[in-house]
Structures are given as C-alpha cells and as structure tokens.
Amino acid sequence: MPDNLAFTLLLAVAVVIMGAFAVGTHLNVRKGDKMIRWMRGGLPLVGERATVRWLGSSVAEIKVTQPRAPFRAAEVLCVFEPRDVPVYWLWSRWRGRRDLLIFRAQLHAAARFELEVFDPRGWTTHRTERDVQKRNWTATPLAQAAGLQAYRSGGDNADVAPLIELATKAGGRLVRLSVHRTVPNLEIHWWMPEPPQANAEHWFANLRKIADAVMK
Questions:
Q1: pLDDT-derived band at 96, boundaries 50, 70, 90
Q2: Is the distance from CB of 113 to CB of 155 less than 8 angstroms?
Q3: In the chain, what are the domain boundaries?
C-alpha cells in the first residue's frame, strides 16, 4: 500500500509538472506569435526579410536578413517570463522579470558617444550601474525620465534627451537604452507592449531615427 501511494503521488506530481510545462509553453508561444504578427506592420522599415526561430520556450528571435541602412545587422528578441516552470517563474517574477521586447543592431558607422540609460529595477539592468561606474562614465541628469538613470562616455556636446524621448515613445515602458561603439552599437529593452495599443510602424520608424541620431 505505501508503495502504491508513493507511486500515485509521484505520478500526480509528474502530471502537474508536465501540465504546467505544456500550459506555460502554450501561453508563451501564443504571445510570441501575436508579437510576430504585429511586427509585420513595421519590419520593412528595418529590413526586407527576416527569419523567425524559437530559442527554447521563452525566447522568439526575429533576425533581419536583409537590413536597410543605417542598420548593418538587426534583430528583435521577444523574451518571455518562464511560465513553463512555475517555481522558477514565481522566483523570477519576484525579482522583477517581465516579458521584454529587445532590439539589437549593428550600425553602418560607429556611434559618436556611448550611453547607458536604464531602470535600475529592471531584471536585465541589475549590474549596469556598477559596470558604467567601473568605466568612469559620467552621470547625466534626466529631467524628463522619471525612474531612469543615465551615464555617458564621450560626445559631451551631443543632446541625448531626444534619444531617450524617442525610445520612451517607441513601445512599452523603457527599461534600457544602450549605445556603444562596439557591437551591438544599439540595444533597447522595453516591457513588452500590447499590440492593440501600439503601432508597429511607429515603433520601427523611431528605431531608425535613434540609429540616425547616434551616428550624426
């Protein structure tokens, strides 16, 4: 009897784990498909063609294969919460993880300056402030970017406020705006927007404006 009970409990736990994995994977894939369909409305502004692949059950990668100037290479990552593993999902959510939309690009020319604008509460930015301080970057006040911190290196005469405004308006809540002379030259993180409430063409158009401004 004890052996039968142990087997029944083990089987029940396995069913729960497998069920949770299946449900979590389904939710992420459904969200990913929704975001990919949404991007089709603006993706031609960045490149003529793109490939899509899933990296596990929590990341959808959209890689532009024929990018348009000023982009030499570009990709969009839809990074979802790990809903397929409930314990890890609860732990990561407690640490501030949310669904993220990430844009990365290599530009045709190096940026005139380097910049990090970030929300220190973001789960992808926990070490950003420490990293830029180690490099002796200069803190930059942001009058209109509540909750964000900014550090820069070089380009003292460059006005970064328009970049921050464009990145903030592009999509969901801004988590990170990163400009570097090394690849990727441009990287931006947002909390994933709801497609019905956001305009994909507007989003990609702002990305082009940011890239152009970084190189001027």
A1: confident
A2: yes
A3: 2-215
